[in-house]
Design a protein that fits this description.
single chain, eight-stranded mixed beta sheet, six-stranded parallel beta sheet, 14 strands, alpha/beta, 8 helices
């Protein structure tokens, strides 16, 4: 297999490592920034090509790791040339109509990274096994100070500080990708607000506060922010027979059993972040393996663009009708 990675920022470089980890070495790359091209070439030894001069026969699969506003054109290119493609999480639905109208049996894979994250996989198994009874409601917060996202570059110059492609707009549907999976349903209704409350030097929103109702009746409260000076990713799930608590950086899952009034603590194995990164590398490697398995016909890719559009629509609804 020959792979073409477009976008060689932090995620594009990560996808190079993911392919290497899965035994794939035939990779070409392109970025609109010369410094990123040179870094990828020097650090990983991949061949850099100008996308405008690339021929379809030069690669078998396209990995789209650009900023979200550029996704649509690359999606259409992949469809036009019948290439398998994988895409990072979007903030808009540009290209989705083309995907749904395309009958070609190529693999079209939207990112669903957190479905491969060890504690999320563990929580899914615990909930499905009925360890806290019937799931009724949940609270969730994801927060990290935006300038700390990419400490090696000025946050004001990166897409996640722009209004239309802001970190908050990206992270709400990103988090719904796995929250929906845990809850076994999709968001039927959402209300709340998305706005800027800090003095960060940008026009992008920095807080999402949303209440969601799922199709199966589960209720949830979601806070996503880029103003928390302490990184947090905290989930509390209320069940008919108990409560599940998870704080990512504690590396454990707690289950309160209502019948015995006892708390069970389940250790979560620690992963291995790449130097300079916060997130562990293993889930990204597994995600890329799922893409490769789908191309090889070993297993279907576990997440669809129909599912992803459902999460995007929740974002669109909130942005269109925010409540103060």
């Amino acid at each position: 297999m020959k792979f073409f990675i477009v976008g060689l920022g932090s995620m594009g470089k990560r996808r190079i490592r993911n392919l290497f980890a899965n035994g794939e070495k035939d990779i070409i790359g392109f970025d609109i920034r010369a410094d990123r091209n040179e870094e990828a070439k020097q650090k990983y030894g991949i061949r850099i090509v100008d996308f405008s001069h690339t021929k379809p026969e030069d690669f078998d699969a396209l990995i789209i790791s650009t900023s979200p506003e550029a996704h649509g054109n690359y999606i259409r290119y992949a469809i036009q040339h019948r290439k398998h493609f994988f895409i990072e999480h979007p903030t808009n639905d540009d290209g989705y109509a083309d995907i749904f109208a395309d009958p070609a049996p190529t693999v079209k894979a939207p990112s669903c990274t957190m479905r491969f994250y060890t504690p999320i996989v563990m929580i899914k198994k615990l909930l499905d096994a009925g360890r806290i009874g019937k799931v009724l409601a949940f609270q969730y917060q994801m927060g990290q100070y935006l300038p700390d996202w990419h400490p090696w570059e000025d946050y004001r110059t990166v897409y996640f500080s722009k209004k239309e492609t802001s970190a908050c707009r990206e992270m709400l549907p990103f988090e719904l990708t796995w929250l929906n999976w845990l809850m076994g349903s999709r968001v039927a209704d959402i209300s709340g607000t998305i706005k800027k409350v800090s003095d960060l030097d940008m026009d992008a929103d920095d807080v999402v506060l949303a209440t969601v109702r799922y199709g199966n009746g589960i209720l949830g409260n979601i806070l996503i922010d880029v103003i928390s000076r302490k990184p947090v990713r905290t989930l509390r799930v209320l069940g008919s027979d108990g409560v599940l608590d998870w704080e990512r950086f504690d590396h454990e899952i707690k289950i309160f059993h209502a019948d015995s009034k006892t708390e069970e603590i389940i250790p979560v194995p620690k992963g291995n972040p790449e130097t300079g990164y916060v997130n562990e590398e293993e889930m990204y490697v597994e995600e890329m393996k799922a893409f490769l398995d789908a191309i090889a016909g070993r297993a279907p890719y576990p997440y669809t663009f129909e599912e992803n559009l459902s999460s995007l629509n929740a974002l669109f609804q909130l942005v269109k009708n925010p409540k103060p």
